[in-house]
Design a protein that fits this description.
By secondary structure, the protein is mostly beta strands. It is 2% helix and 23% strand. The chain has a domain at 19-199: OB fold (Dihydrolipoamide Acetyltransferase, E2P) (Beta Barrel). The chain contains 1 helix and 17 strands. Strands 9-16-10-13-14-15-17 form a 7-stranded antiparallel β-sheet, with no helix packed on it. Strands 7-6-5-8 form a 4-stranded antiparallel β-sheet, with no helix packed on it.
Length: 281
């Protein structure tokens, strides 16, 4: 981690990831980048549908390969790069047939490392194979929910899912949230854990830095009037007046409350619900 001297109140306690030790390229591969319209939190009608989003620095979108459909062709990591659109580091992979693609790189990856997407691949960091070929106790990332559906699970910095069992055509995975979930044995996953594990230790330090990231201010419900939020109103610093924490619309939120829909399509795949609070393990 890179820490700053307290030259200003905003710099006091601020920290960031030390990119110089890991990254090897300053600009992206032009053929795999394109412009992208930033999400301002507004729907097709132009109304705010997701609060606290807007502004932020202009970004170029890096086209990341989440399908991994080049089977049995070895690839070599040419560069390790920063991607403003995600928390983990990405790498420019050069395949044996000459094609280049961006991929999410695992922890400890460096230039020159090789990987392969194959049913017969050895179980080592970066290699990709069906879950049925991955032994119990292995950490995986970029996990598919459906065979050939593209990587969907465990894609953020430092994250991984752990294979804890194989049973009845399914692999049981312990997710980063501590939830245990069944995924088809035929779905593919990459071995290892996502790079940039220090991302969660970053201290933003000042409001302006959040605005650069496209995050607009968040006002506490208890600071609002009673007409605007269930926690609002009252004289002085009043309690919320009811047992459970609620959203602006009166729905349960945070603090260990269950917010999952009772009839969600994937309920049959959940072996154990996630634990809440600080001690998730």
């Amino acid at each position: 981690m890179k820490k700053y001297k307290p030259t200003t109140p905003g710099r006091r306690g601020m920290s960031s990831v030390s990119f110089k030790k890991t990254l090897t390229a300053r600009s992206p591969h032009k053929a795999l980048t394109k412009g992208i319209k930033r999400g301002s939190g507004r729907g097709s009608a132009g109304r705010i549908t997701v609060r606290h989003k807007g502004g932020g620095h202009k970004r170029r979108y890096r086209d990341i390969d989440f399908m991994y459909n080049k089977h049995d062709i070895p690839a070599r990591v040419e560069t390790v790069e920063y991607d403003p659109n995600r928390s983990g580091f990405i790498g420019l992979a050069l395949y044996k047939d000459g094609e280049r693609r961006y991929v999410l790189v695992p922890k400890g990856a460096s230039v020159g490392d090789s990987f392969i997407v194959s049913k017969e691949a050895p179980v080592q960091a970066g290699n990709r194979m069906p879950l049925s070929r991955i032994p119990v106790g292995t950490f995986v990332y970029n996990v598919e929910l459906k065979p050939e559906g593209g990587a969907k699970l465990a894609r953020s910095a430092g994250n991984y899912a752990e294979v804890i069992a194989h049973d009845g055509g399914y692999a049981q995975l312990k997710m980063p949230s501590s939830e245990i979930r069944k995924v088809s044995d035929k779905a593919w996953a990459s071995v290892g854990e996502i790079s940039n594990e220090e991302h969660k230790l970053v201290v933003i330090g000042k409001a302006g830095r959040s605005r650069w990231l496209g995050k607009r201010p968040t006002v506490r419900g208890s600071a609002m009037n009673a007409v605007d939020h269930p926690h609002g109103g009252g004289e002085g610093k009043a309690g919320r007046g009811h047992r459970r924490q609620r959203t602006k619309w009166g729905k349960p939120s945070g603090k260990g409350q269950k917010t999952r829909r009772s009839k969600k399509y994937s309920n049959t795949f959940i072996v154990r619900r996630r634990k809440v609070g600080k001690k998730k393990k």
